[in-house]
TrEMBL record:
Pfam families: HTH_1 (PF00126), LysR_substrate (PF03466). PROSITE patterns: HTH_LYSR. The lineage of its organism: Bacteria, Pseudomonadati, Pseudomonadota, Alphaproteobacteria, Sphingomonadales. InterPro entries: LysR_HTH_N, LysR_subst-bd, WH-like_DNA-bd_sf, WH_DNA-bd_sf. Belongs to the LysR transcriptional regulatory family. This is LysR family transcriptional regulator. Keywords: DNA-binding, Transcription, Transcription regulation. The keyword DNA-binding applies.
Amino acid sequence: MAELNSHWLRSFTVLCEEGHFTRAAERLNMTQPGMSQHIAKLEQQLGRSLIERDTPGFVLTDAGEKTLAMARARWREEREFLDSLEDEGEDRGVISVACSGSFAMLLYPSLIAWMAEAPEISSRLTAAPEESIVSGVLAGTYDVGIVGDVPRHPRLTSEHLGAEPLDLILPLEWEGRPLEFEDLQALGLVQHPDGALYADAVLGANFASEYRSTESLRVRSFVNQIGQIPAPVAQGLAYSILPRSGVLAFPQREKLSIASLPQSSVLQLHLITLKRKTRSPRVEKLARLIREEVGKLTF
């Protein structure tokens, strides 16, 4: 089959959007017979009926639904491609970033503020595990990624952003009180997907003689929604361990206290991008916003 005619596809898409042959023809500065001819030629090329005429309009066949979805995807990709070439200004086009769920909560308000100031900016923020972040940056799905481990790949470049503390968070009434491992066991842990990794780092460094493994910890709750992890802590029901970005993004953080521990634990954050001679102005601005948010992680 020869390549689908873009004019016929455009006519079909507009027809589906307008739901009426006359309005679609007027929108494209065509005659109604010309519009009908485009649809008929597209159907002939595909060997399928795309619409079934109905009173007062038409309905799409299964083939029509598939064709419409494909056509919309094609126009969307074309617009994104053209946007990607528009590198003259920093406040125009699409920017995409992937990071941990906790950092995403901290970063998103800055992206919203950017969009409010720049109507031609669109942002895409994805919370993902590090393996997906790296593969997404390599595939071009994300302009930048924020990861802990530096990926050793010849097509990637990385910038060290700084250290993010891992905080052991407690109910507010624990502010300034001495903390023993048995106190934590009495409270119980709010566990989450990264909880074991964080517990090994924080509890292993500060309660080495008592902490054995996460299996030995008393767990009060498990939740995989990053924004909900501190909620039981704020109500005095448990403790948890989170990157500081997750603590700062919690709306009721004034109800939390951060334990003062002898041994601090941190995550090293790195900004990764594809290796290029130059980055577009909007990606450079995105990187600046990310650096500013990382700067808020120490207080």
